[in-house]
Design brief:
The protein is of the alpha/beta class and 239 residues long. 46% of the residues lie in helices and 16% in strands. Helix 1 packs across helix 7 and helix 4 runs parallel beside helix 5.
Length: 239
Amino acid sequence: MELKNKTAIITGAGKGIGKAIAVELAKQGVHLGLMARSAADLEALQAELQTAYGVKVRYASVDITKREDVDRAVQELAGALGSVDILVNNAGIAQFGTLADMDPEQWERIIQTNLMGTYYVTRAVLPTFLGQNSGNIINIASTAGERGFATGSAYCASKFAVLGMTEALMQEVRKSNIRVTTLTPSTVNTELAANAGLKIGDEDRMMQPEDVAELVLATLQLPPRVFVKTAGIWTTNPQ
């Protein structure tokens, strides 16, 4: 599918996987609406992409756990860009600890960000997709949404829930020509992973954000008559 002059909204776009996806789509001529907490990161990325690729880029600094702020940000971005064809829900947080030891407020914050934030943004964009009878939604989950592990109760719960929500949404909207996909990468070499204490190996042997961005691009470029329901991406030979 030709992506040039399509429009995408990407959450968590200031760093890591979200930033890599924004760069990859800009290379294809996709206009971008960027969402993240840090306005400074988004402003720098906007300048970089507009200069390098000549695409239209707008951004909104927003906390995706706040529904009214999300609704306002999506409305502003869609109005500035003129349309929305693609939504990539990438924003997320990670922290690990046993269920007994993790502070309940931190447990809830992970659920609010990874699950409810994804829900709020999707719900804000979905009427546009239904109205135009087309759209692409890609939710970045994790292998942690497919198998639980010790100290991962909150993170795993949030990602299991994203997989279930995405599956249900896919069944609801595919008849409206809306393609809904979940991607489940294993550990990616990002600041989020490092801050969460995950093992980050040699760059040549560790999955990079650009690898996930390549999968997003390949998924979007499929003919409109088909879509990827779920896809995992793993490091070949980690340390």
